Amino acid sequence: MSGVDKLRRLHQLLGEPDADWLVRRVRQRLERGAGAGGAPLSGRVALRSPTHDQRLAVQRLLGSPPRAGGTLTVDLGAVEAVLRGGLWPDGLADAVQQLSGPLTVRRAAAQRLTAAWEAAADAFAPGLAAHPGLRPWFESWLAEGGAKRAARSEARRQGRTKPDPVELAGLAADLLGGAARVLEALPAPGQLRSVFARRVLGEAHALDRGRPLASILNRAVEALTGCADSRQAWSQVGILASSLASTVLALGVPGGGLGAPEAVATAVALEQARAVPMPLVLTLDQVRSGAVRPLSRAGPAVVFVCENPSILESAATALRAAGRAPPATATAAAACLICVAGQPSLAAVELIQLVASAGATVRYHGDFDWAGLQIAVSLSRSVDWQPWRFEAADYLEALAQAGCGPDPARLGPNPTASPWDPALADAMALEGIALEEEAVVARLIQDVEAAWWCG
Predict the structure, then answer these.
(1) Three-state secondary-structure class, residue 72
(2) Which end of the chain is more exposed for a tag (fewer CB within 10 A), N or C?
(3) Can you give the pLDDT at residue 147?
(4) What are the tens digits of pLDDT across the range 261-306?
(5) Could you give the angle at the alpha carbon of 390 between the alpha carbons of 384 and 395, nearest 5°?
(6) Distance CA 269, CA 185 (A)
(7) C-alpha angle 128/130/132, rounded to 5°?
(8) CATH ID of 247-451, from 3.30.1330, 3.30.310, 3.40.50, 3.40.1360
(9) What whole-number distance in Å separates Cα of residue 341 and Cα of residue 385?
(10) Binning pLDDT at 50, 70 and 90, where does residue 82 land?
């Protein structure tokens, strides 16, 4: 019998619709790894409630009628014997592939996929070597499916609508390898993000917002620094979105820069704003220009720091209304007020550090809510501050004076510690009511006015 005749005969016996169930059952076994290496298949397959034509198809294949009953059972060893006896010497597995296409052995495919994801995780190893403390975060992130989500996002970004599983693992490996290279290069003090990305990854936009790689690294640097705000976390490892984008709102910061034109210009602006007094927004470049002078005087100097811009604005209005003349020189300045406006920017942190560098006391106040405590804790990682009416007694006093009203703001379910005064967090949790900084603005302004200028 010629090869063409054999193939035609094979189709007649196993390629007809009535034998399709048998081919599918054999294929399922092969995909699970049966018949590896071309070994003959054995065992039985069964079909419940077969039709008359399905019984006849088995009879044509094996040459004898199958046993009567409600189930049609086929011995694969008998089928192998028929095929290898001359009709199809390469056996049943090869015959099934001729009829239904190449096999994907599931066990082998699963092993390849497992190996691909292990390789993806291994691509992050240099980052862990550079920062071993990231290991708990990374293992938790992997267990939560973070790598697969990032890979799917990257596939969509690249326009790959249906990547196969191994391809998806490859995308994850590329992302995690890039993340590792970034972590190896950190910290990188004072570098713009786009310049840093170009140097480390070869693409200035690789760490742009919305990129899956940027999302991975946001989580990583938050875990690395302990900051819940990714902007602040990046700034703590030296990376800036822009030296112009990082700003701080200040009132009464003394200036006195000499030399470089930008220092002189900034110092003039600081002194003019201090004399009014008028709030001023400083960029990080201006903070670093050399124009800022520390508070310095014979008596105590205080750097007041608040969370919300409305406090600084209200203080400026009150000081102007008081009409007190400022001292003639910057060295006589006794106090200033700096607003972090939420999570402290790098500009805010560096300005506070500069103004307090001659020994001034830093006093901080924020909202009496969990986010306010988190901001205070974040600032304490960079600045040594003392509470400014920001302890348990202050909270309870403010609560009593402000009153709850018919619909008080409730604290959320995730409390934050207050290391400077553990009793504060306890009192807030017990009362369950949040108080915004504006609720105590009058007291804060009194403190600022009392310390503002020496006579």
Answers:
(1) strand
(2) C
(3) 94
(4) 888 899 999 999 998 899 999 998 899 888 999 987 656 799 999 9
(5) 165
(6) 37
(7) 50
(8) 3.40.1360
(9) 17
(10) confident
In the chain the first and final C-alpha atoms are separated, in Å, by: 117
From CA 203, how far away is CA 436, in angstroms rounded?
A: 43
DSSP-based three-state secondary structure for 233: helix
Domain map (residue ranges) of the chain:
3-103, 109-240, 247-451
DSSP 271: H
**312 Cβ contact partners less than 8 Å away, ≥ 6 residues apart:** 249, 250, 251, 279, 306, 337, 338, 339
Mode of pairing for the β-strands spanning 335-339 and 302-306: parallel
Residues 332 and 393: beta-carbon distance below 8 Å = no
Residue 407 token pair: 């619909």
Q: State the Cα–Cα distance between residues 133 and 5, nearest whole angstrom.
A: 69
- Does the pTM surpass 0.70? The reply is no
347-370 tens-digit pLDDT: 899 999 999 998 899 999 999 999
What one-letter code names the amino acid at 258?
L
Category of 49 on φ-ψ map: left (φ > 0), alpha (ψ -120 to 50) or beta = left
Tokens standing for residue 206: 């690789």
